[in-house]
Amino acid sequence: MKVTDNILLLNGAGMDSNVYCVDGELLVDTGTGTFVEQTLEQMDRFDVEIGDIKKIVLSHEHFDHTGAAKQFKEKTDAEVLAHKEAELTEDRTLSAAFDSDFEPPEVDRRLEENDVVKTKNYSFKVLHVPGHSPGSIILWDDDRGVLISGDLLFTDGFGRTDIPGGDEEAIKKSLRRVKKFDNISVLLPGHGTPASNDNIYDDGAIENILSQIQ
Fold this sequence. Notes:
Elements: E1 2-4, E2 7-9, E3 20-22, E4 26-28, H1 36-45, E5 55-57, H2 63-66, H3 69-76, E6 79-83, H4 90-93, E7 109-111, E8 116-118, E9 123-128, E10 137-141, E11 146-150, E12 153-154, E13 157-158, H5 168-179, E14 186-189, E15 195-196, H6 205-211
Parallel strand pairs: 4-5, 5-6, 6-7, 11-14
Antiparallel strand pairs: 1-2, 2-3, 3-4, 8-9, 9-10, 10-11, 12-13, 14-15
């Protein structure tokens, strides 16, 4: 699914997270690994060359976002980026809850607050937003108004905190940071349907969810 001219939603089936491909060179999250081949087929359908993928950013630790990271790293030879607080262990990924064995990828670069992840058309600032997990981040391109929100913010709700590593007070603080952004035009959540101010079917969706942040 093409979200914008340069951003594709490649997955999101079953228990998998959404997988975004930006400018044909950046993957954000990877899903559990159940649908790797289908994701590759979608990339091919949109003329994305797997060898052009240079970076894989993990929005946080959980298995539904990181389970296929090792497979995609091996297939693309891309570098894997995750926040310095994102421990890719069995306990922190909650892989047992998915009845799966986790083979963690090697993390090539540890991200910190205000780091920048660039592609051909985007420059994403990395913001640390704990609450859903200790290593949660969002990617924010202020110039283009594009927010990749992981499991912090969805078009119809907010991330869970009733799981190991969750922190209700921390997620409230993280959400208040996002509410201060006054120009979000594209919201790309970790699950569910993306929203864009240019899509008449999503009219008001971004404004509505932001208004629910207390």
